[in-house]
TrEMBL record:
Composition skew (Low complexity), residue ranges: 254-270
PANTHER family (alphabetical): BLUE COPPER PROTEIN, PHYTOCYANIN DOMAIN-CONTAINING PROTEIN
This protein's name: Cupredoxin
GO cellular component: plasma membrane
Signal sequence residues: 1-24
Gene3D superfamilies: Cupredoxins - blue copper proteins
Keyword vocabulary terms for this entry: Disulfide bond, Glycoprotein, Signal
GO MF annotations in UniProt: electron transfer activity
Occurrences of domain Phytocyanin (ranges): 26-129, 145-248
Sequence segments annotated as region (Disordered): 254-276
Length: 302
């Protein structure tokens, strides 16, 4: 009887540990420091944020916003695609707004104020029970590519901070021979090629090269991490900074310059570690651990 009681205690401990793991949750603050608002650059900002997260049943989304100016509605996929807020699944108007992810599948959220959804205040996520990294397919390249940094908005101090340029770079493949084109207003902006530490600290007096005339065309000639900021006062601190990762080129093609008479330069250092768009999760390992513990406990009954 005592031996049976011991087995039951061990099994109870294992089950309790497994239930504790299952009940564990992660708090996701939507948009990070940016919060929930009409984002600069459109919906890609929240897409980038969502792609950097791992969502599991039991996790909680926290939407931080300004009461009266913003709200958040959970809607269907069809309503999300059409920005239709007339019949939401749920609506919260007070910040912080918390949504518990109670089942696997897709979740859709929008702002219902004015044209906020159409301007990019929209979030789509996918909740999985056992998350794991999904490798991105390698794009097919036919030669060097010219990238206009920030697209039509150009190179400036972005509202919302450095997330704007991180969003612009997200999903793009940069290779040796590609060219970055920085468009800005002469006399009000510049482009500084800097090291990783200078980028991180927004140091003004330790630049590799500075471009003061627009458009500034910079051809990527080395692999690794490349960092760009501005030397103007507080511009870097306010988010005028760009970090990209350059891979080797599989196409033997000469560098392509974005315009005649424009300057070009090598940025970054060879052999630098790659930038990562996803963070590893320890949940799978924990699940295996607790499952193994449960199996060991059950083995006492045989």
């Amino acid at each position: 009887m005592a031996r049976l009681g011991l087995r039951l205690v061990i099994l109870a401990v294992a089950i309790a540990a497994l239930l504790q793991f299952t009940a564990a949750k992660t708090i996701h603050e939507v948009g990070g420091a940016l919060g929930w608002l009409v984002p600069p650059g459109g919906p890609v900002v929240y897409q980038v944020w969502a792609d950097s997260q791992t969502f599991v049943v039991g996790d909680v989304l926290v939407f931080n916003f300004s009461d009266g100016n913003q709200d958040v509605a959970r809607v269907t996929k069809e309503a999300f695609n059409s920005c239709n807020s007339s019949d939401p699944i749920s609506l919260q108007t007070k910040s912080p707004a918390n949504f518990t992810l109670d089942k696997i599948g897709e979740y859709y959220f929008i702002g219902t104020k004015n044209d906020h959804c159409k301007l990019g205040q929209m979030l789509a996520i996918n909740v999985t029970e056992y998350p794991g990294p999904t490798p991105s397919p390698s794009p097919t390249r036919s030669g060097p590519v010219t990238y206009i940094v920030g697209e039509e908005l150009g190179w400036f101090v972005p509202p919302g901070g450095s997330l704007f340029y991180a969003s612009w770079a997200y999903g793009k493949t940069f290779e040796v021979g590609d060219t970055l084109v920085f468009n800005f207003i002469n006399g009000t902006q510049d482009v500084a090629v800097v090291s990783k530490s200078v980028y991180a600290n927004c140091t003004k007096n330790k630049t590799i090269e500075v471009y003061t005339t627009s458009p500034a065309n910079i051809t990527l000639k080395t692999t690794g991490e490349h960092f760009f900021t501005s030397t103007y006062s507080t511009h870097c601190e306010l988010g005028q900074k760009l970090a990209i990762n350059v891979t080797h080129s599989s196409i033997a093609a000469p560098p392509h310059h974005g315009g005649s008479g424009s300057s070009s330069s090598t940025a970054g250092a060879p052999g630098a570690p790659p930038l990562s768009n996803s963070a590893p999760s320890s949940r799978i390992g924990s699940a295996y651990f607790f499952s193994s513990l449960l199996i060991v406990a059950m083995a006492f009954f045989h």
